[in-house]
Amino acid sequence: MNNTRSTTTTTTTTECKDEADKLFKDVLQRKDRADGTRSALNVLNRFRFLLFLPVNIERHIQRGDYDIVINDYARAKSLFGDSQVPVSHCWTLCVL
To answer: Which domain holds residue 64?
Structure first.
């Protein structure tokens, strides 16, 4: 009798877990997608200065703000000049 209750409890627990998995699968998938999007946005924010640097340099050159161009270039070179990150190599090709 005790063995039957144990088997029934185990079966019921397994069925509850399976039902919960079905109910929350979509929620968990959306959470994973949101986490991925959040991570991508963090990367973009981290490299924002670098990504906008070519446009900002051109804009400042057109305005004649050469001191800002020199400062931005020096800042980028000090931040990313010796970096092993592939995006910084792209910056080197675009700016230099």
So the answer is: 47-96
> Could you tell me the pTM of the whole model?
0.53
Q: How many domains does the chain have?
A: 2
> Do both 42 and 55 map to the same domain?
no
Alpha carbons 46 and 87: distance in angstroms, whole number: 12
Q: What pLDDT sits at residue 41? A: 93
- Return d(Cα 66, Cα 63) in angstroms, integer: 8
Q: Are 39 and 27 in a shared domain?
A: yes
Distances (CA, A) of 85 to 44, 48, 56, 66: 14, 15, 22, 28
> Do 72 and 56 touch, CB atoms closer than 8 A?
yes
DSSP state letter for 47: T
